[in-house]
Design goal:
The protein has 81 residues and is mainly alpha-helical. The chain has one domain. Helix content is 64%, strand content 0%. It is built from 2 helices and no strands. The radius of gyration is 16 Å and the shape is elongated.
Length: 81
């Protein structure tokens, strides 16, 4: 994953957790477990959502040229993205 995906994952995780918490409040679930469940939903969904949005942004960018590698840890010798 690249830096854009990390940034988007943080925003998406907070947004998803907040939306889940609002839904729980609408249905009358007011307890600490509602906060915990919403947080877990946000944590689990953040990584894939960040990756998907990052890929979609880069596919639609005509100036972006994919240069490389597959892996979790980026190559430290690679240029900044």
């Amino acid at each position: 994953m690249d830096r854009l995906a990390y940034f988007i994952a943080h925003i998406a995780g907070a947004s998803i957790a907040g939306a889940a918490l609002i839904v729980f409040f609408i249905f009358g679930w007011y307890s600490w477990t509602a906060f915990a469940v919403a947080g877990v939903i946000g944590l689990v969904a953040a990584w894939p959502v960040g990756k998907v949005i990052s890929v979609r942004i880069k596919k639609n960018d005509p100036n972006w040229h994919y240069s490389g590698g597959v892996g979790i840890v980026p190559d430290p010798k690679a240029p900044e993205l």
